[in-house]
Structures are given as C-alpha cells and as structure tokens.
Amino acid sequence: MTPLRQRMLHDMQIRNLSDNTQKSYLLQVSSFARHFRRSPEMLGPEEIRAWLIYLREERKLAPASLSPAIGALRFLYRVTLKRDWSDEDFPLPRKPVRLPVVLSLEEITTFFDSIPSLKHRTILMVAYAAGLRVSEVVHLKVTDIDSKRMVIRVNQGKNRKDRYVMLSPRLLEVLRTYWQDAHPRDWLFPGDIPGHPITRTAVARICALARQRSGITKPVTPHSLRHAFATHLLETGTDVRRIQLLMGHRSLATTSRYLRIATSTVCATASPFDLLPHPAPIPSPPPAPEYF
To answer: Where does the record place the Core-binding (CB) domain (predicted)?
Structure first.
C-alpha cells in the first residue's frame, strides 16, 4: 500500500465513512491512477476532465455512475491532498430525473403469492412492510424485532444512522411463523455461509425469480418494494415528514418526490376535460344499400 493510499484510508476512517464508501473511493482513485500510469499527486484538473470524458465516452457509463468517481477524486484532492480546487474542477453531470415505477396493492399481493419459500417471502415482506433498504433487511438480527413496542430497530442504516420503523401486526404474524420454522439465532435471515447473513445479491435473485413467476411486467427489485411502501403510505394520507423519518431520508426533498407519483396527488385534481359539456352523439352512418 502506497503512503498516499494509506493516508487517504486514514482520512476516511477518521471521518467514519462507511466500509462500502471506503472501498469504492479507493477503487476509483486506483483506476484513475492506473489510467494515466502516474501517482494522483502528479495529476490535476485536466486529467480529471479527461478521465471523466473517458468514462462517459469510452466506458459508456451513465451520468449516475460517474458520481462515485467524482466523489472519490473530490475527497482525495480536497481532503487528503488539501488542494484548494473549486467545484468546477470536479464537473458533476446532470442526471436525468426518472420517477420509480410503483406496484399497485394488487400487484404486491400477486408478487408475494408467487414466492413458495417462507424465508424468501418473509425477507421481501419485511422490505415492503417496513420500507427498508435491502442492505438493512439482510443485516437485521433477531433482537431487532421488538414485539412489545411493535417496532423494528434498524442499526446503522445509510449514513450510519440508527432508526426505528413500525412493526406491522400482520408482519409480526409472518415473522413468528418464519421463526418457528427456521429458528434463526443471531441474524434474522442467515445466509449460506455460517455466521453471515444472506447477501444482497441473493435477495436480488429471489426478487427477480418471484417477478418472473408472478407474470408482472413492471420492473421489480427489492428497492421497488421500498418505493411502493412510501407511495402507498402517501396515498392513504400519511404525512410526508413522517414518511421521511420512517424511510431514513436525510432530506425532505428526497421523500417529496413520491408526491409526484402518488395517485392521491396526481389524481386529486380534476382534468379540465371533465368540465366540458358532453358532445352530441355522433350520428351513425346510414346503412349501405343492398344490391343483392
């Protein structure tokens, strides 16, 4: 490990960045240095610009996929190397605004009914019923289910924040049935490797197979269930601020995007077309004469 890599790692550890962020940043900077075959200390804004053009034009990365590279370089040069560079030296591409595709209640029911495994069904039901990220679901422990207070404790979710979410009475019944069948001891959903939880990749495969079995044509991922959780709460009148707390969003603006897809918002206003008088019925054409 080079001294610069070690220093950057220490800077990230001091700031308590997540393990995944540390690994991602080191990988991004390493790729940047290998591309130019020089130490990052010898590179500057022109190389950063050329690197981003290479990632966009040659590697065909989407704008959202450039964010980790830009974040890593910003941290390296501003924090570790203490370069006094502006935001213009780290151009962030504008991301297209896309709204998530949301499953209806009927589609959610069909989706769950298509999962034959009790364990797999329970995993995805937890994701929907509590609005959890897949990383939060797989890291749940048996002790995180508090049936006395009817809450689920999420330990160190995104941005290293703990939070509590509701424990649905119906979900509690499902969890008790699952526990009586599997008897998990530590991790609520243990994986194939002893002492480790099920992986996010495994949950993604479970979700993809369930979508295939259900016949649902909409895209369905574990995160789709989280989108459905927030949207369905909005449609039943739950306050946006409360949903923000349940979802663990740092910004209310992140939660507010669900207002653009909730039917309670989109369909709350009548179309002016409905105010138009009904047009006179279109007369039927006269019957064609018969010649035979």
So the answer is: 1-81
